[in-house]
Every structure is written in C-alpha cells, then in structure tokens.
Specification:
By secondary structure, the chain is mainly β. It folds into six domains: about 130 residues, no CATH class; about 130 residues, Immunoglobulin-like; about 130 residues, Sandwich (Immunoglobulin-like), CATH 2.60.40; about 130 residues, Immunoglobulin-like (Sandwich), CATH 2.60.40; about 110 residues, Immunoglobulin-like; about 110 residues, Immunoglobulin-like (Sandwich), CATH 2.60.40.2550. Helix 2 runs antiparallel to helix 3, helix 2 packs across helix 6 and helix 3 packs across helix 6. The radius of gyration is 67 Å and the shape is rod-shaped. The N and C termini lie far apart (about 145 Å). The relative contact order is 0.06. Keywords: Membrane, Transmembrane, Transmembrane helix.
Length: about 1000
C-alpha cells in the first residue's frame, strides 16, 4: 500500500534551461500538428512529465501524464526517448517482451497499488521498479546496482526514502500479485431457510458487491460488499410458495491483479512505451450461484380460549381457536391455501380442574370430538356439536395430525398437539346440589328439639372440587308448622298457610350425611321440613359452580314429624265416701284431642287414630298412703274397667249397669285414666296419687275423720298465675272452720323445702262441709320452687289439720319464660245459637316488640277441616301483646248452627308471622247448637262449695254435698272444653247429677 511507503517532503523539480524549454515546446507543437494530420479523426495526446524528480542535466525519475485518460504511466524502455509525442492507447496487453506472466502480474500490482500517487518519493520508486523489470538489462548495465544508479536522479535527501519504498513494493508484489485473479460463489442451505454463501477469491483479499435473491444477509439486507469467506444467509421465499431457490451474484473490481497491463505508445523511431495498471472496468470479476430447489413446509400451531368458562348442562361447548404459523408460511397450491384438519378432543367430566400436562392421563374420559378445517392463520370457532351432559370440568386438546393429510403431509413440518388441562381451554358445567332428608324424630312432643338428617349429593354428576377440596354448599332447611291436624299432602309448593317455625343452615363440604341444627316444636301438630339451596346465599366464589337454585317438595312423608298433642283428662269423682255395696260416680272431662280425632284411618305411613280411653278403678287399698304416683298398677287390685271414645268431651262413668262402679269391700279406691297414644296424640295416664280421683269405703258403722289432702299447680312460668287446692273430708267438720293457704319461696330446687316467711297468704276460706277448696292465684317474678302449706282451723283458731312443708303434690315449680314464643289457646266449646263465643290465648316465651294477635273463626261445611278465606266468618280486632299473659278475643255471635274452628295469628312489628294456630287444633272448636240439651229431672243436690272467690282455675271448682248413709259426697269440677258427650242411660235416682252438670258448665264459661 502506498500508505506503507516512506514519504518526505517533495522538492521542487530543477527547471529546464530557457533555450531547451523553448525548443521542446516548439517540437511538441509540431508533433501535435503532425499527429493531427497523420491519424485523421483519432485524437492524439502528448505525454508530459508527471510527479517525480528532474536532474540538472534534464533526466527525469517518476511518472508521466499520458494526457489520454488522465492517468499516470511509466516508461518501460530505458533506451527510448521521453514520451512527449502524441501518445495513444491504452491497449491491454498480456505479454511484454520476454517478461513472465508473474512479472507482468507484479508490475500490474505495483502500478495499480502505487502508480497514481502524488508523492514523488513513491512515483520515483514505481519508476525504478518498472525499469528493473521491463528493462532489466539496461537497468543494471552501469557496473553497479541499477537502484543506486538511477536513484541518483533524485535529490540525495530523498534517495533513502525512495529505495525503502522500492523494497516494500517488491516485497508486497511477490506476495500479492497473481497471474490469474478469480471469483467463485457457492450456496449451501443447512435447512429450508438458514444457509451459507461461500465466496472464494484469488487473491484472498478481493472484495466486491454481492446480491441475493430470495434471501438476505445476517444484517437483513439483500446486498452488501463482502470478501472471501462464509457468509450466513437466510432464505426469504415468497409467502405461500411450496418451494424456492436462493440465488447469489457478485462482482469484484480486479484492477491491479493478473498478468496484464495497459500500454500507451508514443510514435516515432525511438518511441517510448508507457505502461500502467489494467483499468478496473476491464478487469472486473463476476460470479453467480443458485441453490438446489428447496422444498418448503410450515408448522401451524393452535391456541384456544373457551367461549365461556361456565357452560349450563344441555348447552353446547364452544371453543375459540387462534391459528398461527411458527415456521414458514401457509403453503398455497394453484393460488389457494392448502386445507388442514384440526381435531379437538374434549376430555371430561373431571370433578376438579385437571393438572396441566403434555398428554391426558390414561383412561381420561372423552366427552366428544370435533373438527375444524383450517385455511390459514387466523381465528376459528369450534362447531359446538358437543352438548354438556353433566357437571364437571371439561378441557379441550387440539391437534393436527400430519399423517392424516395425504399428499399435503409433506408441506407440514410436523404434527401438532397442545397441552392437556390448560385453564383457558377448560369449561365448567356447574353441579346441582340436592338433598334427601329424613326427620330424625318420627314422633315428638311440644318443646322437643326437632332435627333433620339430610343426605346431600349432586343430581347432575360430580360434586365439583376446587384446590382438591369439595366446594362447600350452604343448605337452608325450614321447619313448617302444618296448618292442619292431619299429615300434610306432598306438593311442589309450600302451603301458604304453613308457618315457618325456624330456618337452619347446614354447610355441606361434599356429598354425605349431615344433621341439621334443631328447631323447637312449640305446639302439637305436624311439622315438615323443606330444604333448599339458594345461589344468592352462597359465598360469591361458589355461585358460578352451582347450576341452579333448588328446593325439595313440601310435605314429604319422611321429612315430617308428628308433634303429638298432649291430652288433658280431668275428673270429678261424685262420691269421696261410698258405703259398702253402694256405687261411685265419676265425670271425666277430656281435652287435647284434635277435633277430628278418631276419624283418621292412617295413610300407610302414619297409623290410624286409637279411639279408646281406658278408665280403671283400682282398689281396695288399706291406706291412702299407698296411693302414690309410683304405685305399681300391674299388681294393684282392680275393681272395674271402663272404656270411652278417645275424643274431647265429658263422659259420665258409673251411671249404667254396664259401667257401674260398685265397691264391695272397705278401703281406698282410685280411678286411673289411660290412653295408649297414637301418631297424633301422646300417651296419657292419670296419676294414682290424684286425690280428686279417690273415694273411700269405710268399714260399716265408722265415722270418717276430718282430713285435708292438697294438690298444687305442679308447674308454671314466671309471671303466670298458679294456686293450690284442698280436698277436705270428714263426717264431722266443726262449725266455723276455715282454711288458710300459704306459699313460700321461690327457692332454688337444690336448696330443699324451706317454709319460713310466706310471700303469699290467702284469705280465711270458710269450710262448711266436705269439699274442694281453692287458694286463689298468685304469681312470682323469679324461677324456683314454691312450697305450699295449707292449715285448717276451727272457730277458735286452733289447727285441726296442717300440711307439711315440701309434702308431695304441694310444690309448684316455677320456670323461666321459654325463649321461644309459645301460644296456647282455648275456645268456648259449645254455645247456643245467639249466644256469644270467644277464644283465649295464653302467651308465653319471648314476645317480640310490636307483636300483635288476631283471632279468626272459620265455619266448617264438610268433614274435612278447612281454614281458607272461603270459610272465614270472623276476624277479631288486633290485640297488642305487651308480654306473656292471657289474651281474649272479641265476642262473636255466629249466625248459624255448626262447627267453627279458631285460628290465632301472632305477627311481629314488621308484620312477619311469628306463630299461627293449626286448623282444627285441640280446644279450638266451638260448636253452635240450636237449643240447650234437655236437662232432665233435677234432683236435690247439696250446695256447691265455692272456695277462693271468683278467681277459679279454668277448670272451675264445684262441690256438692248429698246426704247419704255414709256421709256427704264431694263434687269437684274443672274448666271444661266439651266437644262430645257420651250418651248413656241414667237412672232416675241419678238425675240430680244433670243439675250439677249444668251448674258446672256455667262455671266453666264464666
């Protein structure tokens, strides 16, 4: 390179002498004129000295300007004259004298490399190199090195630089000069797109412009200047073509290389030849290459997104496909894209989101298969032919099978299958939780805690899971009071008159068996459960996994409990003292049975009513101390066994020969009433210790001593009235006797009986005859045991008989008001047409603020109890409830005879029903008659003893003394709800009882 040569400042050339210059100028002018004539139209150009050095004697060392093409050329002939004539050329030559091709190549290289320099030290070295090769004989003919000889034409100061440059030129020429420069290209493709363009040049350092077709270089350009070596290329076929070729072409300006020179000729006998490097345009190299035909394929890929994450059972699964090409472009044949088939397999159902994997697990269930025809990259939608069969997780796997595409298979790089279990390729079919329930209590009593056992499952497939755990579902169960005394009819809808007693929840953490929290049964009747699942009641994240709300049917037999009605049997033993061979008479008052008791014959699940009340007279017993609550009746002596229908009413026992009670031996006797119980009514047995069910047969000729037997109200709630009663017996009761009742407490139950300072003391109640006497009522505001003690005094205040603190039957257990609202009612049982009737509600428990009570009466026109708006004939005024207590309806006069059912309703301040009575409930029937029953012939009963003033217990107290050999007979009555009387023959001597009965009924209605 010229840049590697030594340079010095260029000295000015020695000027020619004036005379010589003029001569040369004139000669040059003549030569130009002559040349113009000799060559006709061909232009002639005179040579002139270029860059170099002149000696003082006119010798020149350096380059000449050819003036033909503006290039510098060098004299090849040391023996010829200077080239000042008309110079012609250049012409390309491949031989010069006897020079070898290598020498020509080295000359060409040096002339190309440094020949056009503007540095005289360079051009001088080029001239020396040309002479040393082209005129070697002459150059070294001076007895010394031609280098040293001819370099002397240059200033002494520059000679070392010139010779150093000359040495460099010779050295590089030997290395770089080539006789025949060459260029070759080859293309090799590693695959369909990646390849290499290999460029081979001689010499190796050649560079040129290369251009690619259907390919680019690594920098993304289709052309660039490169040299020898391997150059990475990437094929860029046109979109959609099935095959292509990669082409490459390259050209190199090879001036200065090869065994050739450009020759300029100066005319004349001693003409001088000027030489220069071959010009680039005529010495360029070019080459091209093309790859073999490259068959193309492409790789389609599919990503999907389900149209909906949740699919309703019975709806279609729809998947959205996004098709892309990860390699190549979609192949077109005859201008149209080839068609591919994508196959979608929908796996499921699974009970939870399956784990993502390369392939489905072995045995994975398949819901269906669909295909989609693909014609290029873009969006597609699955056909939607697979319908959701049941609950579960369903996940798509899409594939393209290369082997299934016949002659088009060669255009597919490989088959494609996406991953299994991807969340965005999964749809969920919600599950439907349901429950089958069974009431845990087939039979119960008021106040019992009712529970239900539910077996929960999914009705439409798997119970779904999330994160490995079953999705929790909240079931709501409501216990409804059936608005009738008969079992409910099964129905899809809930009876609008059914009253919810309470709603409980069960959170099911999967299919299984669960027991509900309890609901208290406040009164008798049937209670049926209804379970439901409401999506709105579930946690937000759960709702989408549930198919629908669900509710089971109302009145399902196995979901129903019979809360059996309690029976109350009160009796009035007419005689408490019976002479041997005489007869005892009893009046039994039965309440608590549903009005239709005895009519229900069973339905296959609930058994028929038991329509029998048994009355057994046990005795004799030597002393009344044997007559206790725990008397073993299985071994007790039996005097008589009687039976009446198990229905509400007043039944007279002992009045006919068929049911006479005729003791033959002295001693104590007691009548015990029992009811075996059935599916609607609780079993019942009166106590053998009931003092009011006793009578005594004294030995002949003996007096009955004065005794007092008491029986207090056994239980009451705080704030409720309670009392004590006393049965005074004896044939000789002193004149002026009186009773005083005292109550002590309330005391804790575990503290024992304590009777020190009474909190209640009755008035002095005169005792004029044997009979039943009542204390009057009292209340307490705290719970505990209240102990009664009765004292019978003579006129002087001396105690005739006195009870013992804590004696059996003389304790009233006062309980706290229950938390739940409880309403018990008792309507007037029978009225004459035109007389008023009413209903009474006893309210206990927690009364909500703003609670109100309404009574309704429904006339019955058929044998089936019905309380609908069509039967409604009376609605009371609204009664505000200010707490527990007794509340009475308005009086109503019904306008026709018949049966009327009362129903009471309690609502809270918001109008929500808190309690509603049952249609035809016990003690809620009023019978309107045309006329009072025929009283018969009155007898001559003794005066009834009234004790405790007018504040009689609802069962009313009555007593009567009838003269007899054995003494008076005490008649005692309680408040009665009479629905039916048992018909029977009554002897004339017993008709006096009818008068007593009429008085008793009058006391009841008061």
């Amino acid at each position: 390179m010229s840049g590697s040569l030594a340079h010095t400042s260029q000295p000015e050339a020695a000027p020619l002498r004036t005379g010589v210059r003029r001569w040369l100028s004139a000669l040059l002018a003549l030569l130009v004129i002559a040349g113009s004539f000799a060559f006709g139209t061909q232009p002639a150009h005179a040579g002139s000295e270029g860059v170099g050095y002149w000696t003082s004697d006119g010798a020149f060392l350096g380059a000449y300007n050819t003036d033909v093409d503006g290039r510098q050329a060098y004299c090849a002939d040391l023996d010829s004259a200077a080239p000042y004539g008309n110079t012609s050329g250049p012409g390309r030559i491949t031989s010069l004298d006897s020079l070898s091709r290598q020498q020509l190549a080295e000359l060409n290289y040096v002339l190309d490399r440094w020949g056009q320099s503007s540095d005289p030290n360079v051009t001088a070295a080029v001239a020396l190199h040309v002479w040393s090769v082209a005129s070697a004989g002459r150059y070294n003919s001076h007895g010394m090195s031609g280098d040293d000889y001819y370099v002397a034409r240059a200033p002494a100061s520059e000679r070392g630089t010139i010779l150093a440059n000359l040495a460099t030129m010779r050295q590089e020429a030997v290395v770089n000069a080539v006789t025949d420069p060459s260029l070759s290209l080859s293309i090799e493709m590693a695959d369909q797109y990646a390849g290499t363009l290999t460029v081979t040049t001689h010499p190796a350092g050649l560079t040129g412009s290369a251009a690619l077709s259907d390919a680019v270089f690594a920098d993304g350009s289709p052309s660039r200047t490169i040299g020898a070596g391997a150059h990475p290329i990437t094929g860029t076929p046109a979109d959609g073509v099935p095959s292509y070729r990669v082409g490459a072409s390259m050209s190199i300006d090879a001036a200065g290389h090869g065994a050739a020179l450009d020759l300029y000729v100066t005319p004349g006998g001693g003409k001088q030849r000027l030489i220069a490097a071959v010009a680039g345009s005529s010495t360029g190299l070019s080459a091209s290459a093309e790859s073999p035909l490259i068959e193309l394929d492409f790789q389609p890929e599919i990503t999907t997104q389900v149209a909906s994450g949740f699919v309703t059972e019975g709806d279609a699964f729809v998947d959205g496909l996004t098709v892309s090409v990860s390699k190549g472009t979609w192949i077109h044949l005859d201008g149209a894209p080839i068609e591919l088939t994508a196959t979608g397999t929908l796996y499921g159902p699974f009970d939870e989101q399956p784990a993502e994997a390369d392939t489905p697990p072995a045995g994975a269930p398949v819901a269906g298969v669909e295909t989609v025809t693909l014609t290029g990259a873009g969006s597609y939608t699955s056909p939607g032919t697979i319908v959701a069969p049941e609950s579960g997780f369903y996940t798509w796997v899409w594939s393209i099978d290369k082997t299934a595409h016949g002659e088009h298979a060669k255009y597919l790089t490989d088959s494609f299958t996406d991953r299994f279990g991807q969340v965005f390729e999964t749809s969920v079919v919600p599950f439907q939780p349901v429950a089958v329930s069974k009431a845990d209590q087939h039979l119960a009593v008021p106040g019992d805690a009712l529970t239900d056992t539910i077996t929960v499952s999914s009705s439409n497939g798997a119970w779904l899971k999330k994160d490995g755990a079953h999705i929790p579902v909240v079931f709501e169960g409501t216990a409804y009071q059936v608005p009738d005394t008969l079992p409910p009819a099964q129905n899809n809808g809930i009876d609008p008159n059914a009253v919810p007693l309470g709603t409980v929840t069960v959170t099911a953490d999967g299919p299984g068996v669960y027991t509900s929290p309890s609901v208290i049964a406040p009164t008798g009747g049937f209670v049926t459960w209804v379970w439901e699942v409401k999506k709105s009641s579930q946690p937000e994240w759960v709702r989408d996994y549930l198919a629908n709300d669900w509710q089971d049917e109302y009145g399902i037999t196995f979901e129903t409990t019979s809360v059996r009605w309690p029976v109350t049997v009160t009796s009035l033993m007419r005689e408490y003292n019976v002479h041997p061979g005489g007869r005892a008479f009893d009046v039994i008052t039965v309440t608590g049975f549903p009005a239709n008791h005895g009519d229900f014959t069973g339905d296959g699940y609930w058994t028929a009513d038991v329509d029998e009340l048994h009355h057994t007279v046990y005795g004799p017993f030597a002393t009344d101390t044997e007559l206790t609550d725990d008397l073993d009746l299985t071994t007790a002596p039996v005097l008589a066994e009687l039976m009446t229908p198990a229905r509400n009413g007043v039944y007279k026992l002992g009045y006919t020969d068929e049911d006479k009670i005729a003791p033959t031996e002295p001693g104590f006797y007691v009548l015990v009433t029992t009811f075996a119980g059935d599916d609607r009514v609780q079993p019942y047995a009166s106590s053998p210790g009931d003092a009011l069910e006793r009578f005594y047969v004294p030995p002949t000729g003996t007096d009955i001593p004065v005794t007092v037997v008491t029986q207090a109200t056994p239980e009451a709630f705080v704030g409720e009235p309670f009392s004590d009663t006393a049965l005074v017996q004896g044939t000789k009761i002193p004149d002026g006797s009186y009773l005083v009742f005292r109550a002590y407490g309330p005391h804790p139950a575990d503290a024992g009986a304590v009777c020190e300072v009474p909190f209640y003391e009755s008035e002095e109640i005169p005792v004029t005859q044997a009979g039943v006497y009542r204390s009057g009522t009292t209340t307490v505001d705290t719970a505990g045991n209240v102990y009664w003690v009765e004292s019978l005094y003579n006129a002087d205040g001396d105690v005739i008989a006195e009870g013992v603190c804590g004696a059996p039957g003389e304790t009233t257990v006062v309980k706290e008001q229950p938390e739940d609202l409880i309403v018990k009612t008792n309507a007037v049982a029978t009225v004459q047409l035109g007389d008023p009737a009413h209903d009474v509600a006893t309210v206990t428990g927690t009364v909500p603020d703003g609670a109100r009570l309404v009574f309704e009466a429904y006339r019955q026109d058929s044998d089936t109890a019905t309380c609908t708006p069509e039967e409604l004939v009376f609605t009371s005024t609204t009664i505000d409830l200010d707490g527990p207590g007794e509340y009475r309806s308005d009086d109503v006069i019904f306008d026709r005879v018949g049966t009327y059912y009362w129903v009471e309703t309690v609502t809270d301040g918001d109008g929500t029903i808190q309690h509603r009575g049952v249609c035809d409930a016990p003690d809620e029937t009023t019978t309107v008659t045309d006329a009072p029953e025929e009283p018969g012939k009155p007898g001559t009963p003794g005066e009834l003893a009234h004790t405790g003033g007018g504040d009689w217990w609802p069962l009313g107290l009555a007593g009567g003394l009838i003269a007899a050999v054995t003494g008076g007979v005490l008649l005692f009555g309680r408040r009665l709800a009479i629905a039916r009387d048992r018909a029977g023959y009554v002897r004339d001597e017993d008709l006096s009882f009818e008068e007593f009965k009429a008085q008793f009924e009058g006391a009841k209605e008061d």
